[in-house]
Amino acid sequence: MKIVFTLHALDRMNKRKISKEEVIDIVRFPEEILKKKGKYYAKKNIIRANVEVIYEKENYIKIITIYYL
After folding, report:
1. Are 9 and 66 in contact (CB under 8 A)?
2. What residues contact 3, with CB distance under 8 A and at least 6 apart?
3. How do strand 49-57 and strand 3-5 relate by DSSP bridges?
4. Contact indicator for 49, 65 with CB cutoff of 8 Å
């Protein structure tokens, strides 16, 4: 499935030094996932921190934001 990143998400990834590959891995293989109001909240522990990725899914996945927990 196609994955697109919002400018906001790209900015947050840059500030937090999180790569696109890491975000894609979190979305594809989360340790925990919740769905609230049409948005998905995928959580995963990457080497340096616990990270949550918020995205929407329709015909493609749109990454909205990324942050450390």
Report:
1. yes
2. 24, 27, 60, 61, 62, 63
3. unpaired
4. no
Report the C-alpha dihedral over residues 8, 13, 67, 33, rounded to 10 degrees: 90
- CATH for 3-68 (3.30.300, 3.30.390, 3.10.450, 3.90.1200): 3.10.450
Which pair of tokens denotes residue 64?
A: 């909205």
Cα(64)–Cα(69) distance, integer angstroms:
16
pTM of the model: 0.93
Tens place of pLDDT for every residue, the chain, 69 residues? Answer: 899 999 999 999 999 999 999 999 999 999 999 999 999 999 999 988 999 999 999 899 999 999 999
